[in-house]
Each structure stands twice: as structure tokens, then as C-alpha cells.
Design a protein that fits this description.
The complex is a heterodimer of chains A (about 130) and B (about 140).
Chain A (H helix, E strand, L loop, with lengths): L10 H10 L3 H7 L21 H10 L5 E2 L1 H28 L4 E2 L1 H10 L19
Helix pairs in contact in A: 3-4, 4-5
Chain B lengths: L11 H11 L5 E2 L1 H28 L4 E2 L1 H10 L3 H28 L1 H9 L27
Classes of the chains: A mainly alpha (about 130), B mainly alpha (about 140).
Chain lengths: ~130, ~140
């Protein structure tokens, strides 16, 4: 984990930049089919559940953050699930406009550009080296 | 704890399932799009954590709680998530309580030892023992 000099950027942005710089193969190798982990079955059982252990790893990766309660990790995981649903649906609108039944990367890009709440994904998402002076 | 970049990925299988359940039947998703959504979800968690942390710091707490995360959702303009999140949290709390009762019946001695543990413990090694944290029962859900 590199230690870039800290300006006024929040810790998580450095983290994201560092991670985004990793070669694609590395990331894909690391992503296993592991849907396990300490994932309690909560809320409506029909939706898939993100493993709390992975969410916790993200929380701990931010150097500015101390501890997080189990509940906080759970709510973050659940929020991330809702986020995935939301962005997928918003992106799908563009696939429909293009009369496609396959969601493509460009649909994501369009949704991110169009939806205000997704503004935090702009820039970083394209792995631009915007965080380095 | 491992801080390698790879550990920041969320599992493909789960992400794919969530996407499929959100979209109509028969809709596919390209590998690139799926991967992009997965990365976006990771960024979302990082961003939400950072926001939540600000609320915790404002409250002079070193431990993020559920209320901080909910406040973060508001801040990030994801207000529409708040109601379903509160609902899920209630269910989760009930389930955790049920598990706790079951554990108490099994091994009372181990439980009393856990209750003596410091709750504001800054020792990172304790983090992995998520099931043993008991501070959650008293936590208020802000907002």
C-alpha cells in the first residue's frame, strides 16, 4: 500500500487511486467466486448478500477511520447492495434506449454522467491520475 | 490485516446476482459493465465510510455506528436508501439478538468474559471478531 504525500484529499481517494492503478489482471485474479464470508441473512431474503468481511476490509482500508461497529458494517454492506441495484437500473435505461438486452460499459458511463448522486464516481472511475500533484 | 489492493474487490458472483435481480429477466450484462459496477460499489463503500467517519468524529466517537452510516447516506444524497436500510437494520438487530440468546444458553461463561471486554478498544485485532461485539444493542439509530 503506497503512502503518497497527504494533501487535503480524503484518505479514501488515495486508496482508490492506488487500487485503480493496479493492472487489470491483478484485480481479476483477486476477485474469486467467494460469495461466502460472515454474511448474515437479513432483510428480505431474496436479494444476494455482500459478505461483511469484504465490506469490513474496505472500511479498514481508510487510514482516517478507526473502528466500525458490526452494525455499521452491515448497513454499509446493505447500502452497497442498494447502490448496485440502483446504478444497474439507471444504466439499463440507456441499454433500452439503444434497444439492447445487454448492459454495457457505456450505459454505466451514461448513467454516471446523468445522475447527480453518481457524481462521486466521475473522474476516479476512469482511473485518471487526478490525485497526484 | 491485509491491505493489498485485491482485497478491496467485492465478490463477482454476488454483484452479478444483485444486478440480475434488479433487472428484468432475459437481460444480460457484459463483463466490463459488471466489473465497472463492482468497482463503483467499492468506491461507494469507501466514500460512505469516509462520510460516516466525519459524523463519528463530530460526535467525538472513535467507532463508526449505524447512525453515522445513515447520516452519510443523507449527506451523499441517497436519502431513498435510508428507509430500507433502517428496516434491514431492525431485522438484523433482531437476528443478532436471537443469536446472542442462543449463544448464552450454550456457553454462559464465555459470554460474561466478552461483556467485560472494553468496548472502546482501539486494538485492531479485535475487529475480526465481529460477532462478539455487543455494543450494538444500545446504539441509537440517528435520523
Amino acid at each position: 500500500m503506497p503512502h503518497p504525500c497527504r494533501h487535503s484529499r480524503p484518505g479514501w481517494m488515495w486508496l482508490w487511486a492506488a487500487w485503480a492503478g493496479a493492472p487489470v489482471q491483478e484485480r481479476q485474479r483477486a476477485v474469486g467466486e467467494d460469495a461466502g464470508g460472515a454474511a448474515p441473512c437479513a432483510g428480505s431474503g431474496r436479494a444476494a448478500r455482500l459478505p461483511l468481511s469484504r465490506v469490513k476490509a474496505l472500511v479498514k482500508a481508510d487510514p482516517d477511520v478507526g473502528l466500525a461497529s458490526q452494525e455499521a458494517v452491515f448497513v454499509l454492506a446493505r447500502a452497497a447492495e442498494l447502490f448496485v441495484e440502483t446504478i444497474a437500473k439507471d444504466a439499463f435505461v440507456y441499454a433500452q434506449q439503444g434497444k439492447r438486452k445487454t448492459l454495457q460499459r457505456k450505459d454505466l458511463d451514461n448513467a454516471i454522467e446523468a445522475v447527480d448522486e453518481f457524481a462521486f464516481l466521475e473522474g476516479e472511475f476512469r482511473f485518471l491520475p487526478v490525485f497526484f500533484p | 490485516m491485509a491491505e493489498r489492493p485485491e482485497d478491496l474487490n467485492l465478490p463477482n458472483a454476488v454483484i452479478t446476482r444483485i444486478i440480475k435481480e434488479a433487472l428484468p429477466d432475459g437481460v444480460n450484462i457484459s463483463k466490463e459493465a459488471r466489473s465497472a459496477i463492482s468497482r463503483a460499489a467499492s468506491v461507494f463503500v469507501l466514500y460512505a465510510t469516509s462520510c460516516a467517519n466525519n459524523f463519528a468524529m463530530k460526535g467525538k466517537r472513535k467507532t463508526l455506528n449505524a447512525g453515522d452510516v445513515l447520516s452519510a447516506m443523507e449527506e451523499m444524497e441517497f436519502q431513498r436508501f435510508i428507509a430500507p436500510l433502517k428496516e434491514s437494520l431492525e431485522v438484523y438487530r433482531r437476528e443478532q439478538k436471537g443469536k446472542k440468546e442462543a449463544r448464552k444458553d450454550k456457553d454462559k461463561k464465555a459470554d460474561s468474559e466478552e461483556q467485560d471486554k472494553s468496548r472502546e478498544d482501539d486494538n485492531d485485532d479485535d475487529d475480526e471478531r465481529m460477532e462478539d461485539e455487543e455494543q450494538n444493542d444500545e446504539e441509537e439509530v440517528d435520523n
